[in-house]
Design brief:
Blueprint (H helix, E strand, L loop, with lengths): L18 E4 L3 E14 L11 E16 L2 E16 L6 E18 L2 E11 L4 E6 L5 E7 L5 E14 L2 E14 L23 E18 L2 E12 L8 E11 L4 E12 L3 E14 L5
Antiparallel strand pairs: 1-2, 2-3, 3-4, 4-5, 5-6, 6-9, 7-8, 9-10, 10-11, 11-12, 12-13, 13-14, 14-15
């Protein structure tokens, strides 16, 4: 059994800005943050590896309301690396880009006709790590910027109680998956890369999409946010539903100290025919500038 002792866990928000601007039509809010984490050991009998990691995060949201129209657009991105002592390569700990826009025209209370656009991808290269015959760590390139990249466009219905609780359902939604031919040119004929076949650079899907968003306060100083995205491809195995669920819980211990828990589930058999699970737990100091 291996024992690890955490000497220092710090998520220091070197620069964080939250902004809320309001006029008769527009509401905006955003956050920019740099998070740093460090774990250090010195002559520790139980063992452990010194490491340092940093993450840059950007989140921004625009909302337009006027005469029954409601247009919500949000941009989210994060990129983080961790460096372990004596390891030849830094490893990614976070990497995502999300641009999402939903517009609705209300026809009854809380219910609107809607159209949505969604783009997701990553910023940096992704690697698969392994050992060579001499036990040296090597890596193999598996993904890179905009490979894969997902575009979705659809129309349907938006049910919205308020900004903190809404559901958008699109019975007709198109999805385009783009990849680099670098990853498909050498594929065997019976294999795919994120669903894209040999020597191709794209895959088209037509199906339905459901997006659910909820946020609020669980207890005093305990806030949560959750997002669920489901997609069913009518053209191939419609009962095989892609899932992306992200839950975040933040506990404000005091104005400077907070605890954050992130839990994410992804199922997309174009990528891997197994449920992907990600958990992040952090305790640290943050500075917010209003």
């Amino acid at each position: 059994m291996r024992y690890f002792v955490l000497i220092l866990i710090s998520s220091i928000n070197l620069y964080s800005q939250e902004m809320v601007e309001k006029d008769s039509l527009w509401t905006t809010r955003g956050n920019v943050a740099v998070l740093l984490n460090q774990t250090g050991f010195s002559d520790w009998v139980g063992g452990g590896t010194n490491n340092f990691s940093g993450t840059l995060k950007f989140d921004y949201e625009w909302e337009f309301k006027d005469k029954g129209w409601d247009w919500l657009t949000n941009v989210e991105s994060a990129f983080g690396l961790a460096k372990y002592k004596d390891a030849p390569f830094a490893r990614k700990i976070d990497d995502r880009i999300l641009i999402q826009s939903i517009v609705g025209k209300e026809f009854t209370k809380n219910l609107s006709f809607s159209a949505f656009f969604n783009f997701t991808s990553q910023i940096g290269n992704g690697f698969k790590y392994k050992k060579d015959s001499e036990n040296n760590e090597i890596r193999e390139l598996t993904t890179r910027i905009f490979s894969p990249a997902y575009f979705q466009l659809g129309s349907g219905f938006l049910w919205k109680k308020d900004e903190s609780l809404w559901v958008n359902y699109s019975p007709v939604a198109a999805r385009l998956i783009l990849v680099s031919k670098k990853f498909t040119s050498s594929l065997p004929e019976n294999e795919t890369y994120f669903g894209v076949t040999q020597n191709k650079s794209s895959r088209y899907e037509l199906g339905s999409n459901l997006t659910f968003h909820s946020e609020g306060t669980l207890f005093e100083n305990v806030n949560y946010k959750q997002d669920l995205k489901l997609f069913s491809n009518y053209l191939e195995n419609p009962s095989n539903i892609d899932l992306d669920y992200l839950a975040q819980i933040e506990i404000d211990v005091n104005p400077l100290l907070s605890t954050q828990l992130i839990f994410q589930l992804i199922y997309d058999d174009n990528a891997i025919a197994r449920l992907q699970v990600r958990e992040v737990f952090g305790v640290g100091v943050q500075l917010k500038l209003n």
